[in-house]
From TrEMBL:
<feature type="domain" description="Metallo-beta-lactamase">
    <location>
        <begin position="7"/>
        <end position="190"/>
    </location>
</feature>
<dbReference type="InterPro" id="IPR022877">
    <property type="entry name" value="UPF0173"/>
</dbReference>
<dbReference type="InterPro" id="IPR036866">
    <property type="entry name" value="RibonucZ/Hydroxyglut_hydro"/>
</dbReference>
<dbReference type="InterPro" id="IPR001279">
    <property type="entry name" value="Metallo-B-lactamas"/>
</dbReference>
<dbReference type="InterPro" id="IPR050114">
    <property type="entry name" value="UPF0173_UPF0282_UlaG_hydrolase"/>
</dbReference>
<dbReference type="Pfam" id="PF12706">
    <property type="entry name" value="Lactamase_B_2"/>
</dbReference>
<protein>
    <recommendedName>
        <fullName>UPF0173 metal-dependent hydrolase SAMN05444008_102305</fullName>
    </recommendedName>
</protein>
<keyword id="KW-0378">Hydrolase</keyword>
<comment type="similarity">
    <text>Belongs to the UPF0173 family.</text>
</comment>
<dbReference type="GO" id="GO:0016787">
    <property type="term" value="F:hydrolase activity"/>
</dbReference>
């Protein structure tokens, strides 16, 4: 499985012969100025919740690529009103098999409002299974014991957790989340984008290493194999 990181919580997965973009927030970030969103051609776009730092480029990329957007009902309805033609509504607890694999929507403890102030529905995470490979993207969330359910659904190759604190769990809680989901490889997201979520990256790396968990912090535009 290949993952390309576009900064904050946005990344592209290549799995099951398809390209799946998650939480498209690219153009507003100065650090991502070299990323050309017109060159990003996903088959699917997964949106965890409605905040602008997760959905800012969704309409543009969905329209240029024809990708199917998978999100909660309220976000899909809002996107349809913005001119997005292809979408599949889901909600917490549901699962659906697509041509790249199965998506299960998990609980995320957060808030969700859309850029125009309208209701964004329930925030979610995703357990994605494609063939023998599985990953868990928690979305923006606090640490929650709901995560202990994840190992019953999938044996994870890796997890993707926010580590920036303030708006989500910090890296200390992300270590506990990794233990709950029984996963020893974590990709950290949702940190250093804004002053509120700047972290000491070395401290985070050291804390994960001390817990026997591998923390990966890819550079913007970097592609990694997992």
């Amino acid at each position: 499985m290949r993952l390309t990181f576009y900064g904050h919580s946005c990344f592209l997965l290549e799995l099951g012969g398809k390209r799946v973009l998650v939480d498209p927030f690219i153009t507003p970030k100065p650090a991502a100025k070299d990323i050309d969103i017109s060159a990003i051609r996903p088959d699917y776009i997964l949106v965890s919740h409605g905040h602008g730092d997760h959905i800012a480029d969704c309409v543009a990329i969905a329209q240029q690529s024809g990708a199917t957007v998978v999100s909660n009902f309220e976000i899909c309805t809002w996107l349809a009103g913005q001119g997005v033609a292809n979408y599949h509504p889901m909600n917490t607890g549901g699962k659906k098999t697509f041509d790249f694999g199965t998506v299960r929507c998990t609980n995320a403890i957060h808030s969700s409002g859309l850029p125009d102030g309208s209701y964004g529905g329930n925030p979610m995470g995703f357990v994605i299974t494609s063939g023998e490979e599985s990953l868990y993207f928690s979305g923006d969330t606090a640490l929650t014991t709901d995560m202990t359910l994840v190992p019953g659904w999938a044996k994870l190759n890796f997890s993707i957790f926010p580590i920036g604190d303030n708006f989500t769990m910090g890296y200390e809680d992300a270590i506990e989340a990794a233990r709950m989901v029984q996963c020893t490889t974590v990709v950290g997201v949702h940190y250093d984008t804004f002053p509120y979520i700047v972290i000491d990256q070395q401290k985070a790396m050291d804390a994960f290493a001390a817990a026997g968990i591998r923390l990966i912090l890819p550079a913007i535009g970097e592609t990694i194999e997992l």
